[in-house]
Amino acid sequence: MAKLQLKKVAKVYEDGYRAVKNIDLDIQDKEFIVLVGPSGCGKSTTLRMIAGLEGISEGEMYIGETLVNNIPPKERDIAMVFQSYALYPHMTVRDNIAFALRMAGISKTVRYQRVDEVAKTLQLTDLLDKKPGALSGGQRQRVALGRAMVRDPKVFLLDEPLSNLDAKLRVTMRSEIVNLHRKLETTFVYVTHDQTEAMTMGTRIAVMSVGNVEQFDTPANLYYNPANVFVAEFIGSPQMNMIHGKIIKENDVIYFQTVENKIRLPQEIVDRLTVEATGQDVLLGIRPENIDYADDPEETNVITVNAKNVEQVGSDTYVYFDLKAAARESFARFNPPRMIPLGADIPLTMDLTKVMLFDKGSEQAILTPRPVEGVF
Length: 376
Ligand code: ADP
Fold this sequence. Notes:
Elements: E1 4-12, E2 18-27, E3 32-36, H1 43-51, E4 58-63, E5 66-67, E6 78-81, H2 93-103, H3 108-121, H4 137-149, E7 155-159, H5 167-184, E8 187-192, H6 195-201, E9 204-209, E10 212-217, H7 219-224, H8 229-234, E11 241-250, E12 253-257, E13 262-264, H9 267-270, E14 281-286, E15 291-293, E16 302-306, E17 309-312, E18 317-321, E19 330-334, E20 345-350, E21 356-359
Helix pairs in contact: 2-3, 2-4
């Protein structure tokens, strides 16, 4: 059993900096967990505390039923894969993979048998006699994974393992690591700053910002039911649009009013409000794919914007525009793509059943989550 629990865990570095602030994470056996967040938010520190490479300043950490706060790294039954691979350049791939077993005093026959098994899983068999210098980036990364695997650890920790690879190889290695997790049926904790990597790999994802876990949830929930503005803006590319406004009520009808427009909110959104929001300043979030070209200009809730930039990416068309009420530049994503002349005034319609609402002060969601089972 490799359940992993962090209870109110904090890290205060020697200089007094609180890099991780009282985080709770309850990781089940065999899960693939991703810690994601901008640079400096405490992902590596958290991972290093799990590995035992960094002391835990406050709180408790359990692996299985064992409190591991004071258990040294070697005895935690954990393997870590680093971004830098950390391979020994003078040793062959075989000896690199076998290294930990040699240190543990395991016989040469057993060692090489185990290396052969691992090499087969990772498709490294033909490379076993080569040295790391003769391998490509992706192959080196597989050797680094092999070095971790050979010890048959309870938990795998991976710290940005793909960041040294080019974009195409990253995509291939992404699915190789996911397949490896399926094969090994072991708990994986994976650190990345890349939200696409997080979304495509994790069974659950902890989104972190400045030492806090903002939300620990499935990819679908992070995308469709972000708990706050930080998660809403961090997950999804291009970013979710955020529009400032107020909830108002006129003749029993609920509207979202901005400096430019007054939009009637659909009943299904009104029904999901968790607070009596009338008069409240809010942020309305809408994803670019929920904004479409209004083919019928007579439709209600059509707004006209100026296409200040247009990107054709083949499958979709991205249109950039400014709204007075938006905190920053806004985007629409048309699928299928369509011809939009640069600088044209275009009519847009929003699928208002998909909007998200956040309290402007606390930036927390004020809608109950919408069901996401089976969405993806
Ligand atoms: P991430 O992995 O999310 O980029 P880190 O966990 O590496 O973030 O770092 C979190 C914060 O802690 C950063 O602000 C970093 O500068 C700080 N930090 C990291 N290591 C130390 C250290 N040894 N002493 C003091 N501050 C540190």
